[in-house]
């Protein structure tokens, strides 16, 4: 355990602490969905550190302390989290979520995020989406759904998000404080793409609802949008 708090790893420190053997979060008993999610959310960014400290209305302080002291701080301090610590969290989630399979089965990352963010910590939804002018929807993460694109052999995240939003006729109602995206590459069987290139920056200009944008013909503020 690491009861003192450590900041997220950046630049050279991230490479030094996270690179090499016995680094990252140790997998055990189908924990990969949770390991990958926790590593993504906390290793190199502080945008969701409120999950570790803030006393939310529904907050379970025991689960919050396990997450902070047994997983996030050791990951940031030494670059390694043992499987026993993640299993401790899984056992507590099983108890709170009335779902016995959290300790042994492969789950969807979205199910894990909804449980810990909504039911256990009581965090406000991170995303507001609108589809085809209908009522807006609140959610904690966005899962990419799209048909197989023959011209996308090794896509980057920017391309996948744009294709997915376009095919689903979706828009972001507002700029999100945190944009968690689940790639179409998960589970033991399903892999739509053999590789996906991470986009180090994401341009959401064209994904925002009613956002003023430049006309690609004349350069003034656009009044029409062509998909």
From TrEMBL:
**Alphabetized GO MF terms:** cysteine-type deubiquitinase activity
Ordered alphabetically, the record's keywords are:
Cytoplasm, Hydrolase, Microtubule
Say if the entry is tagged with keyword Cytoplasm: yes
Report the residue ranges that make up the Peptidase C19 ubiquitin carboxyl-terminal hydrolase domain in this protein: 24-204
Instruction: State the superkingdom.
Output: Eukaryota
Print the organism lineage: Eukaryota, Metazoa, Chordata, Craniata, Vertebrata
* Name listed for the protein in its UniProt record: CYLD hydrolase
Biological process according to GO: protein deubiquitination
Q: Give the organism, scientific name.
A: Herpetotheres cachinnans
* Compartmental location: Cytoplasm, Cytoskeleton, Spindle
**Pfam families with a match to the protein in the record:** UCH
Which cellular components does GO assign to this protein? Answer: microtubule; spindle
């Amino acid at each position: 355990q690491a009861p003192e708090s450590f900041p997220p790893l950046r630049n050279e420190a991230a490479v030094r602490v996270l690179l090499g053997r016995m680094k990252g979060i140790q997998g055990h008993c189908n924990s990969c969905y949770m390991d990958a999610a926790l590593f993504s959310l906390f290793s190199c960014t502080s945008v969701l550190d409120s999950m570790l400290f803030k006393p939310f209305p529904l907050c379970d302080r025991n689960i919050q302390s396990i997450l902070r002291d047994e997983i996030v701080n050791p990951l940031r301090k030494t670059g390694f989290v043992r499987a026993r610590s993640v299993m401790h969290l899984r056992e507590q989630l099983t108890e709170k979520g009335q779902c016995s399979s959290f300790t042994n089965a492969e789950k969807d990352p979205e199910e894990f995020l909804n449980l810990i963010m909504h039911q256990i910590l009581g965090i406000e939804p991170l995303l507001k989406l609108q589809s085809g002018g209908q009522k807006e929807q609140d959610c904690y993460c966005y899962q990419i759904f799209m048909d197989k694109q023959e011209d996308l052999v090794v896509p980057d995240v920017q391309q996948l998000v744009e294709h997915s939003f376009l095919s689903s006729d979706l828009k972001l109602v507002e700029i999100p404080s945190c944009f968690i995206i689940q790639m179409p590459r998960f589970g033991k069987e399903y892999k739509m793409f053999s590789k996906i290139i991470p986009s180090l920056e994401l341009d959401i200009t064209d994904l925002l609802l009613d956002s003023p944008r430049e006309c690609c013909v004349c350069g003034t503020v656009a009044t029409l949008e062509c998909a």
